[in-house]
Design brief:
Strand order of the largest sheet: 3-5-2-15-16-1-17
Radius of gyration: 24 Å
Largest sheet: 7 strands, parallel
Distance between the termini: 17 Å
Structural class: alpha/beta
Number of helices: 13
Order of helices and strands: HHEHEHEHEHEHHEHEEEEEEEEEHHEEHH
Shape: globular
Helix content: 25-40%
Length: about 375
């Protein structure tokens, strides 16, 4: 059913003049392109298709992490492997006080971005708050692949310095085990631990294994893998922001430009309050603009910006390219109302697809 639904969405896009206009504008000389009514799964399909058509990566920013996760799941249905870069939920004051740390999840996302990613998803906070620079990132992670030389005793010392704990049997994140010429590591945020088999001081194979049974996962022969620190790490003075790690040709997609601007202004107020407090505490804080990304300047200097606006919002009227999609709606558990609306759509000639989260919900 999912394939049929995707086919319907694709058919709509390919025959509508709105999508043709969008493609033409993105490939033209316009700096900013505005669309309205593009949200939910249709938005994910458009980003998926654009990432395959245009010769530049895509970064999409939203005001909330829930929007990012939903978009990530929709993209995965389409087979698009997007990278979610989260905020570490710490304040600007933590940066001034020297306790600001980047989470292991951020480091893992940045390692994937540094190797190239078609689609990057983040929140306005993830976009504007400090992140480790590429030099810091590469110095804090290890990349290994079959055929590489590996000194197991030396790598054990390195893993300990990266806050991994040596145990007899690795089964949870942040642990590693060394048995003869076999090294097991459970990298944070990975679904499965990895098992590195070494023969004559060179890596022979890298595989995933089940942490419960300790048996290899079938068909899991891996190529290059990245090993990141097991715990959150402090950000050094050389930190930068996410855009500095992105390709200069990146297409910037704003999911709700007004909400993003409001969130950015709230961050500025938070930063101003933190700066005043840091001065009172005699911390000699750097100015706000060296901590937060200058969001307006970032948009002005970006090669191309696509602004997606909810068709129901006040600032959507008369702006840019329009699509005839309606966003997600709730029936508040009223199945009678839901059934009536579905019947009206069917009688009007629409194809209706209902996706359920469980078998009980489907019944």
């Amino acid at each position: 059913m999912t394939d049929r639904f995707v086919e319907h969405i694709q058919s709509y896009f390919y025959r509508t003049s709105s999508y043709t206009n969008l493609l033409n504008q993105l490939q033209g000389n316009e700096h900013s392109v505005h669309v309205q009514g593009l949200e939910g799964f249709p938005l994910a399909w458009a980003l998926h298709d654009l990432a395959g058509r245009i010769s530049r990566p895509v970064v999409a920013a939203a005001a909330s992490w829930e929007e990012i996760r939903s978009l990530h799941l929709d993209l995965s249905v389409l087979g698009r492997d997007s990278v979610c870069f989260p905020s570490n939920s710490q304040s600007v004051l933590a940066y001034y006080q020297g306790t600001y740390r980047n989470s292991a999840e951020q480091i893992k996302s940045l390692s994937r971005i540094s190797r190239g990613a078609d689609v990057v998803l983040t929140t306005i906070r993830g976009l504007c708050m400090p992140a480790p620079g590429l030099e810091d990132l590469t110095s804090r992670m290890i990349s290994v692949k079959p055929g590489d030389a590996m000194d197991l005793e030396q790598i054990s010392e390195v893993l300990t310095q990266m806050n991994y704990v040596r145990v007899p049997k690795t089964s949870i994140h942040g642990e590693f085990t060394l048995r003869g010429e076999v090294l097991d590591i459970f990298v944070p945020e990975d679904d499965f631990p990895i098992r590195i088999s070494v023969d004559w001081d060179h890596i022979e194979t890298i595989k995933n294994y089940d942490p419960l049974t300790q048996l290899p996962v079938e068909g899991s022969n891996l190529g290059e893998v990245s090993i990141i620190p097991a715990l959150d790490i402090e950000v050094s003075g050389s930190c930068s922001h996410l855009p500095s790690l992105l390709d200069p040709e990146t297409l910037v997609v704003l999911l709700g430009s007004s909400a993003l601007e409001n969130s950015y202004q709230s961050m500025r107020k938070e930063a101003a309050d933190a700066y005043r407090r840091a001065v009172i505490e005699s911390l000699s804080p750097p100015d706000i603009d060296s901590v937060l990304l200058d969001y307006p300047s970032f948009l002005k200097t970006s090669k191309k910006v696509l602004s997606c606006t909810d068709i129901r919002s006040a600032d959507a009227k008369g702006r840019g390219i329009s699509f005839a999609f309606q966003g997600p709606r709730s029936f508040f558990g009223n199945m009678h109302y839901f059934r009536e609306e579905t019947e009206h759509l069917v009688n009007a000639g629409y194809s209706v697809f209902v996706f359920c989260g469980s078998g009980a919900q489907m019944q």
